[in-house]
Amino acid sequence: MESATVAVDHSHEEHHHGPPEANQSSRIDRQTLGILLFIVSEIMLFGAFFAAYFFLRVVVDPPSWPPEPYELPVAVAGINTAILVSSSFTIHYALESIRRGHRNGLKLGLVLTWMLGATFLFIQLNEYAHIGFSARDLAFGSIFYGLTGLHGAHVFVGLALLSFATIRAFRGHFGPKAEDHLGVEVPGIYWHFVDVMWIIVYVSVYIL
Amino acid sequence: MRISEQAVFRWVVIVTVAAASVVALTLLSTPLVGALWGVALVVAGALHGYRWLGRRRRGITG
Asked: Would the pTM of this model clear 0.80, i.e. be above it?
């Protein structure tokens, strides 16, 4: 598979300082490639945590899971899952709006996404406060807080990215062309990754 | 398939529907059945991805 590279014309530069401009692929822009590579690395990180979780669950095979007397709030986590899935729809709505040139739709979508994400995080923290066990309680506690906490940290980072995107959206920085709203598209791709990862965490930890 | 938020969102919907089926099956039967169905879906997704890559290498899809 060959990627075309963009040739850089240096013939008009009289005073060139610094290293030459890096080659660019014509198939994918740098920002999208960057976030995809980052997501791949984060998938590997989550993979390590899932490996630990399933090792404890399947290989160690304790008599009961979760161990007595701990219980997981499946229904509350289910509602939280619905909230996070909804936030993927709102950020998609925001991006579809700006692709059509509707800046108000972009702003509304971004604000809604941020609020849904913050609600998810708040409910998760509230769950930690009331769940009845800590990270020090058995290996189960360690891996539960490790896996859900790792995801929560990713949600926090996603909220930070969305904050930047929302502020810029309200300042009118984005336009309908693809290269004019990469500042929303890239956080959008990251947010979808966070959503999908939570779906996998929820099914693995709370349901199975 | 051009890598964009639209393509990723399509996969969000697919994964959500697949996960909902795993959840439903687990609640209706046992966690083992749900886990097996989940593994089957993952394998099907991996096969689909492998075939898509092959088509892309041959220049059949964009």
From this structure: yes
Instruction: Please state the ipTM of this predicted complex.
Output: 0.85
Q: Is A138 left (phi over 0), alpha (psi -120 to 50) or beta?
A: left
Which CATH number applies to A30-207: 2.170.120.40, 1.20.120.80, 3.30.530.20, 1.10.12.10?
Answer: 1.20.120.80
Instruction: Tally Cβ neighbours within 10 Å of residue A33.
Output: 14
* Tokens linked to B59: 């220049």
Q: Tell me which chain A residues have a C-beta less than 8 angstroms from the C-beta of B56.
A: 1
Nearest CA in chain A to B27: A207
Contact B15 A1 (CB under 8 A): no
pLDDT digits over A63-97, tens only? 888 888 889 999 999 999 999 999 999 999 999 99
CA distance A13 to A47: 48
